[in-house]
């Protein structure tokens, strides 16, 4: 389970970080190298989830979506300095509950 969570976090950071670098180029006029670096990181994001041991592509990506939401809230807080409100945290907890159900619910 630790490997799965580490891969989810790594994939999330790659997607958010890569997208952020592209955002900085397009929205804040940073050098094109930011966008190029961000794009390469986004390619890594496409590879990282394939390292999961879960047999279902759909379930891995659905669960990853919940992890992505939580990482996005944290990124906004730590990088963009936008403090999450109570509804951000409630939404994040709902997402974690959903991720847990999707990945670890007993199936026959």
From TrEMBL:
Cellular localisation: Cell membrane; Endomembrane system
Keywords recorded for this protein, A-Z: Cell membrane, Membrane, Transmembrane, Transmembrane helix
Phylogenetic placement of the source organism: Bacteria, Bacillati, Bacillota, Bacilli, Bacillales
Principal location class: membrane
Membrane-spanning parts: 31-48, 60-77, 89-106
Family, similarity comment: Belongs to the UPF0060 family.
The keyword Cell membrane appears for this protein: yes
Record's protein name: YnfA family protein
The keyword Cell membrane belongs to this UniProt entry's keyword annotation: yes
Its membrane topology: Multi-pass membrane protein
InterPro entries for this protein: EmrE-like, UPF0060
A Pfam entry, by short name: UPF0060
């Amino acid at each position: 389970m630790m490997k799965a969570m580490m891969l989810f976090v790594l994939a999330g950071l790659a997607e958010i970080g890569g997208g952020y670098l592209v955002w900085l180029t397009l929205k804040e006029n940073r050098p094109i190298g930011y966008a190029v670096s961000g794009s390469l990181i986004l390619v890594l994001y496409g590879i990282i989830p394939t390292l999961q041991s879960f047999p279902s592509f759909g379930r891995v990506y659905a669960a990853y979506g919940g992890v992505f939401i939580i990482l996005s809230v944290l990124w906004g807080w730590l990088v963009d300095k936008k403090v999450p409100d109570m509804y951000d945290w409630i939404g994040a907890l709902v997402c974690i509950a959903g991720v847990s159900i999707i990945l670890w619910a007993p199936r026959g």
